[in-house]
Amino acid sequence: MIKKYIFAIILLCTYTISAQEYFPKNDGVKSKNTNYTAFTNAKIYVTPTQVIKKGTLLIKDGKVAATGPSVKIPSNAVVVNLEGKSIYPSFIDVYSKFGVKSPQRQSNNGRPQYDASREGFYWNDHIMPEQNAVDKFSFDNKTAKDLKKAGFGLVNTHVQDGVVRGTGALIALTNKGGDAERILDGRSGQYLSLSKSVTSAQVYPSSIMGTTALLRQMYHDADWYAKGNTTGKDRSLEALIANQNLVQIIEAGNKLNDVRVDNVGDEFGIQYVIVGGGDEYERLSEIKATNATYILPVNFPKAYDVENTFLANALSIADMKEWNQKAYNPKALADNNIPFAFTTHQLKSPTELKENILKAINYGLDKTKALEALTTMPAKILGKQDLIGVLKNGAFANFLITSGDIFDKETTLYENWVKGDKTLIESMDVKDIRGNYSSTINAVTYQIEITGSISSPNVKVKSGANTIGAKLTYADSWVNLVLTSPEASKKEFIRLSSRVTDADNLKGKATLPNGKETSFIAKKTSKSDSKKEKKDKDNTKPNMLPVTYPNTAYGFNSLPKQETMLFKNATVWTGEAEGILKNTDVLIKNGKIEAIGKNLNTKKAKIIDATGKHLTAGIIDEHSHIATSSVNESGHNSTAEVSIEDAVDPDDIDIYRNLAGGVTSIQILHGSANPIGGRSAIIKLKWGESAKNLIYKNSPKFIKFALGENVKQSNWGDNQTIRFPQSRMGVEQVFVDYFTRAKHYEALKKSGQPYRKDTEMEVLVEILNGERFISCHSYVQSEINMLMKVAEQFNFKINTFTHILEGYKVADKMKAHGVGGSTFSDWWAYKFEVNDAIPYNAAIMHNAGITVAINSDDAEMSRRLNQEAAKTVKYGGVNEVDAWKFVTLNPAKLLHLDDRVGSIKIGKDADVVLWTDHPMSIYAKAEKTIIEGAVYFDLQRDTQLRANMKAEKTMLLKMMLQDKNKGLKTQPIKALEKKQLHCDSE
Amino acid sequence: MKQLIYTISFLILSHSAISAQQTPGAAQTETFSIVGATAHIGNGTVLENSVIIVENGKIQGINANGTPKGTVINAKGKHVYPGFITANSSLGLIEVNAVRASNDANEIGGIIPHVRSLIAYNAESKVVESMRPNGVLVAQISPKGGRISGTSSIVQLDAWNWEDAAIKINDGIHLNWPNPFARGRWWLGEDPTLKLNTNYTKQIEELNTFIKDSKAYLKGPKHIKNIPFEAMKGLYDGSQKLFLNVNSEKGIIDAIAFAKHNAISNLVIIGGYEAYKVVDVLKENNIPVLIDQTHRLPNSSDDDYDLPYRFPKLLMDAGILVGIHTGAVSNFQTRNLPFYAGTAAREGLSKEDALKLITSNTAKILGIDKQLGTLEVGKAATLFISEGDALDMRTNKLTHAYINGRSVSLETHQTELWKRYSNKYKTQQ
């Protein structure tokens, strides 16, 4: 009862401490401490670059009053002599969820949710700019302790949930004064991410391109709302508008998303601060071009456990290299003048920060940059560079007192001061008792070695050659040492205790096994030298493997360059009127086909003997889904606002595999989850280049449409019955509805009246105006016919029917409409609507005068499209020259690229393939695959790349085993120590 | 209502009249000879200008420049092959993948050796008939679900019903070996990296227990019948084979040890992605491998792009008996079996060796090599004539196909639609 009473008083006290000056005081007098505190003789980092070698830091009322080499110390100052010690501004974590509980995932009943669940907010639940972290903030003492131990004084926290997450709050980790003192800024920035809220099951957006499209539309809608064009109330948009002048921090999470979000920002004049993924070093020039400041997690991967051979074999070179290289990321960014701050985000505990920063420093990161990334850079991001992260006059008194260089492994952090409030981490007054001692007790001489850290040292004791079990505790100036008796079998102990004084020797009382007490002296013989040994071990320079393009299996050390090449004596499949030319030479230069003929000669060209080989144009796949981070945005029945160009993944190994199959260009189509899908990315397979450089320059504009079972969700499971359309009847009406609205939209836009910019409508208007082409996923004749009729009703044409498996049933109608057919060679029977699919489809459509292509829709088939074309020779007897066009010139025509690629014609891009055999023979291999005169695949080089990878993997495995073995060595020792402890406690 | 039913059934009837299944060929009554073709024997050899005499459903003679007997089929400039054989297929068990009602390839229950594929085999499947024009004439039909999936049978692909189709009833038991590795379910926040499967030992122990129990039962009085235990009998008396689906190096070694431990001698590895890493063990134990179709992506991003293309050569060069199975593809793709073999030849295997992958080797592995797999005297006249190289899609063009000497139709639902619509446009012109 008394205990409880005291506790209550303490609570009251702390409460009154937190009271502000205008709060009434009922528990005593209202006097205020107006003393200064002066820290003298310290090395002071005023900023990471402005260092006072020996000076004074003077603080008062939680702020810095003065810093300098010779500061006049007021008489009412408490002076702390920090001779030999250092003062740093304390760290700032600018990307934290400190004190803000993450919401729980909502369980849903398995039924999809297409509409928003909120009223009076934006139409998408994942847009929550109206959230304010400060409203949900509750100081978390435990985490604060860990953060302060790691050197942090301030954290900028926010609700880590949703695409737009609202405002963050800048929190000082002080125990004094409560939240009134802690909350430095309740609107410290606006936070965004690419992840949906766990509080809503609303399907949209279901993809990366959907998320970027959502952000774009949100900004358009905010603009419309800000101009007062909306009658209803939208609290989300109102908050978004109110937050627009705050710093905008977006979590992108990897190098590709960094660029994607920056592209969104650029369109709306917003420069995001980007929370990266730590893999930015793999695409430095693109990252640099974002002009963004980065916030970098430092969760460098640990070595994999590779002792199990089978598991080790499953490790990819990309994962292994990530372990080897990721700590290099900060240095790479620093070298390229890309500004960045560090965060503890993604770390299991803030205590892991230091080891990881040290690792980055070991990889060459400059210590000043490291310090900036923890102090001035986060301050700058928050627009508070004079107030935090520095120790200038007027700045908050947020600082650390250390035994020395803060980025030295052995350095001790003594105190962490936040707004003038001290948190003791380790006492500065603890005497260093480490060293070697000698003591004779009960006629036995012991050699005592004390090592480890100052405040919690370790001990090793020997008597002659025998190791003696020993345990040492050191606290409150008392040393207690328990020794096993020299006759170990007896399980007896000698206990020593000594009060530590200024003298070097330890002096005190020993209790012998028989209970007799006697005094002892342990004479200090020398200082410990273990420190040096350790240092040398940790400082081994990393053996870093080169970063390749892409930084995965089969990446190049440098990007392939355009070459001048002369193919001699080839069988040339021109794809033009000339047909197949035997014993012919082809010269490529400046990325173009320069000459075709007999006995061509040029001095500068690299000569390639193509005798017995076949040279063709590169294969073009009209329907591919490789090289993209996402395929479907399935959240709406129309998603014209999304574009695969926002999702291109240049690191996909299937690019390389396609090259090995002679493919040079592909259309990455949106999937078939909805009648109106997303826009395409048409790319060249320039393995190693960035996403942006893969995409065709002045690319023709395409969009995916789809019909049938997929869009009516027939095979999605029994829960998927609520999205319109659920029948082919409904599919038609989706198109009629959208195109009708698009017409109205364009009319309004042209009228000069205000209109709400709608990306989806803008894209549909392009279709109506013939500026964008449709490639439509289609199977049965009824729906094929329907879409042509809808298009004709709106005065445009369908460009391509893709799949088009029943095209042969309506070939005459297709011919009349003028649409092309891009089909499978022989797929059928995988779902109900392909029951009448026949492998003769291509032949029948071709014979009816339709431009026919054979496509893959499949990463496996795409690398054998030459074989798939050959199947049309078997099924339907198409002649070989025409069959070859099904995978080269015809898809080029369908993609409106036939003026650039698709055949071997002077002036066209030098996208060519050298085959070991007849290109449609099953025995043929692509020997060289060339894009714009640069060799992206070469059989010989492939062999070399395989050998290189094998060597690299062997080396990395060795390094991982070495890393592991460091632990192994210490492992048995640890176990032994435990035993001693057990022994002692008996 | 009656009227409506009548109308519907009439419609169905009239529709099926257009696209009926092909009628199975009648039994051979007359002797015939295929004359002048290049005969690809299926055992690695070729006979130019051959005369193949077919009598009573069997190959009665095969000679270069021999004397024909009976009706002469002139095949000069053409090629004759033994009918291609696919293993581990789901033909006739699944008609349309996405239509659950048409899928009979998986049964529930985990350890269900008593479940038999043969009785669910739909001899009239439209997918089955589409095999014949590409030369695929024989198939092992296997169940796919659970740990021990059930019992397979081998059929020929031109039949009125499953009894008619059966070549070898209940030829083997199919087992899906537990995966030694497991990945965390990332969507539940688990670490997605590869780890050892902690249930692996337990899953193997379940199999061992079942084997021990079934053996004990079979030695006993069997007063009360145990259906699953009974179904294992053939495995122990050597009349059935164990088809073991396993891909990893560790899994293959463990699976072989398991079979040895349980004295199961007729073991076949199906899948065998990493079989090339354990050829010594396979050879030492004389275990054949049925590898996945060559037209597949490598499992790992680091694997050679052409690794799956090279598996047959890697194994054959090491002296392993190897065939290609089609258990990992959709049924309709099974007709590409010849091209899976052709792709192996792209990687340096001779064309005749590549042919073995889908003829004699598979016949040996399935235990039907006495009657099928090569063009040799005394074997079934299950063969076909192609205008060109049947392993290459450009030239795989069948003119005749025979099963047990019966001339089988090369028409299908698909060729009928082809002709119907080709004619439609011809008459429009």
Written overview of the protein:
The complex is a heterodimer of chains A (986) and B (429). Chain A has 25 helices and 44 strands. Chain A has 986 residues and is an alpha/beta fold. Chain A has a 9-stranded antiparallel sheet with strand order 22-21-20-19-27-26-25-24-23, with helices on one face. In chain A, strands 1, 2, 3, 4, 5, 16, 17 and 18 form an 8-stranded mixed sheet that branches. In chain A, strands 28, 29, 30, 31, 32, 42, 43 and 44 form an 8-stranded mixed sheet that branches. Chain A is globular, with a radius of gyration of 36 Å. Chain B has 2 domains: 26-83 and 373-429, Roll (Urease, subunit C, domain 1); 84-372, TIM Barrel. Helix content of chain B is 28%, strand content 24%. In chain B, strands 1, 2, 3, 4, 5, 16, 17 and 18 form an 8-stranded mixed sheet that branches. In chain B, helix 9 crosses helix 10 (337-346). Chain B is globular and about 65 Å long. Classes of the chains: A alpha/beta (986), B alpha/beta (429). At the A-B interface, helix 8, helix 15, helix 21, helix 22 and helix 25 of A face strand 11, helix 10 and helix 13 of B.
